[in-house]
């Protein structure tokens, strides 16, 4: 029997068996999921097969990327002529790399302001990249010093904004310190603005493309990133066991696969796969939204988990 999740205009059929991997290929912590224009999907995970390519039905086509086994994190796809390119972030090796879908490196960004913002490269731990229509590249230093860095389309460093709150971390000041960040974990350019998952402040922050704070969006728990839905919605994978669907202005529209307080279970997110339930997420880390409304969700579990949600009419 098919499990249905969501409500109202946002109802989906849960498909936990969509990803089909052959013997010898196994997921590690699964961090990213995107779909190329030719229908292929790319899964970014922490294993010797860090980049796994599958077809539109989840069938394995190939893999590469063993060098990302320890630090695979953010995955973004951008149009490149008749094809697509991937932006990969490796927070362990302080790498932001632009690659073809076959793994050829096209560009690698430098550590920004080494010797100024960063005493050494180990302080820089990038977690995701985003690209604007004019080619400007934004990089979130989510596990390092909480900056957002801007680079020109050719990879030249431009400037930085954000940065950690100087007086220290607090998880109760969601409305305070506009423009300052506490683990900017993921980001996307949506509607001509930069939307940042300000994870440890339990909120999204919206910036102009010049780095000026514009507004907060609340109603999320522990947001990992954000993508744009086919109707302009904000779709937010939340590590605390759900996927949020918000209006472009931030109003709640649906909460998908919610499993309240799953994160309080001993060992979370390393929960025995036998305890996983259809219709309930463990730790969503990334989501892809197809133009037709289907979603694919990658979960941060040690053995990986990828769920396809087919939008119902």
Would you kindly provide a written description of the structure presented here, covering whatever features stand out?
- Helices cover 0% and strands 43% of the residues.
- The protein has one domain (4-311): TolB, C-terminal domain (Neuraminidase, 6 Propeller), CATH 2.120.10.
- The strands form six sheets. A five-stranded antiparallel sheet has the order 1-2-25-24-23, with no helix packed on it. A four-stranded antiparallel sheet has the order 3-4-5-6, with no helix packed on it.
- The chain is globular and about 55 Å long.
- It has strands at residues 4-7, 10-15, 30-35, 41-45, 51-54, 60-64, 72-80, 83-90, 95-100, 105-108, 128-131, 137-140, 147-151, 157-162, 184-190, 193-198, 203-207, 213-217, 227-228, 234-238, 242-246, 252-256, 284-289, 295-299, 305-311.
- By secondary structure, it is mostly beta strands.
Beta fraction: 35-45%
Q: What is the CATH class designation?
A: Mainly Beta
* Major β-sheet strand ordering: 1-2-25-24-23
Task: Sum up the overall morphology in one term.
Answer: globular
What topology does this entry show?
Layout: E1 4-7, E2 10-15, E3 30-35, E4 41-45, E5 51-54, E6 60-64, E7 72-80, E8 83-90, E9 95-100, E10 105-108, E11 128-131, E12 137-140, E13 147-151, E14 157-162, E15 184-190, E16 193-198, E17 203-207, E18 213-217, E19 227-228, E20 234-238, E21 242-246, E22 252-256, E23 284-289, E24 295-299, E25 305-311
